[in-house]
Amino acid sequence: MNKNISALKNISEKESRSIIGLMSGTSLDGLDIAQCIIEGCGHEMKLQLKNFTTVAYNEEFKNEVKKVFAKETVNLQHLTLLNEWVGKKHAALINDTLTEWNLAAGDIDLVASHGQTIYHAPLSLHGEAVFGDGTLQIGDGDHIAVNTGIITVSDFRQKHIAAGGEGAPLAAYGDYLLFTEEGTDIILLNIGGIANFSYLPAENDRNMFSTDVGPGNTIMDAFVQQHFPGQHFDKNAAIAKQGTVNDLLLNALLDHDFLRKPLTKTTGAELFNLSYLKNALKHSGMYQLNVNDVMATLNRFTAQTIVHAIQPLVKKGRPCKIYASGGGMHNPMLMEWLEQNLTGAVLLSTQEKGIHPDAKEAILFAILANECVAGNGDNFPGGIKNFPPVTMGKISFPS
Length: 399
Ligand SMILES: Nc1ncnc2c1ncn2[C@@H]1O[C@H](COP(=O)(O)OP(=O)(O)O)[C@@H](O)[C@H]1O
Ligand SMILES: [Mg+2]
Known about the structure:
The protein is of the alpha/beta class. Helices cover 37% and strands 21% of the residues. α12 runs parallel beside α13.
């Protein structure tokens, strides 16, 4: 037997696996690195987060990726070079982090790499029926495997699309295994660059679904980066707090077909970007609005789209818990508004269930890699929209 296959077989048969989950979202803030110890698989799986860090990207990394990120037209040579460059950078960040944690490559069974999304193109965005849904993540797994010496599972989203999904949100799979609670409707709300949630109703698995909602931090971040050079985001909503929500601009922001489209749907920075804001400023005639008022309005825009999508799912007389995660949780203005306006449900952090809210997405990819290597392939119900019961991820060997 090929020695790589034999190593993989051994990992698959282990009682517990040490898996590094990696997440690099559309916010381009940094690489989330989560070392998970996962015992078993599927509903019997037990997960423990051993170590977690977010390594902030330097300006060079952000600038190189931004040359292609969410852009319709790019330099193809640059994109080709980035695919391996991002993989090597991620490998170097893993190696540095393992040294910091006093761990060696031999202590880790698998790396689960999401890669860097550079374009998410659901049919709802591009409208060309002949092509269907598409998405592209770069930072090829072969470069991570060779440069870390660890078997790497990567590029999870293509299989989801191949099996009939939109390629996002993939959080649904881990959410389903980790958070289902008897007798309570559960909503897992993640506020990253884009806001998404999984809905796990108490009464029937088969009514579960997972969807994007609209912007999380993406337009807010882009606006800050445009007006406050050197700042990546509106830290603790300091800028927004000095402004007032402008109703005319807010209504123009809310007036978009994507937001009226029924659930489930997916989106990205290809739609929710500075052009989106520019259009809304134009339609509302609010060109002269000061930066603080624009920030306050963008903040409310994110909050309101989340409430509009989630509130109808909160049923009278049925307990409902919303567990939040993602960087948006650190935005006090956003969270306060959600807390006050999501009625009939309790808003909590995923920490209440032992899952670090900043590490959650990286943990979910570690779970997908665990299912890929050790799962039975039948841990997910079929027949649910945008939730094909398939094994995701491609396997790269170090040698
Ligand atoms: N203290 C904070 N105040 C306001 N916003 C924050 C704070 N910390 C993080 N964020 C927001 O969270 C984003 C990162 O969220 P994250 O969940 O990592 O998203 P992604 O998955 O897209 O990378 C940042 O770009 C920023 O907008
Ligand atoms: Mg991030």
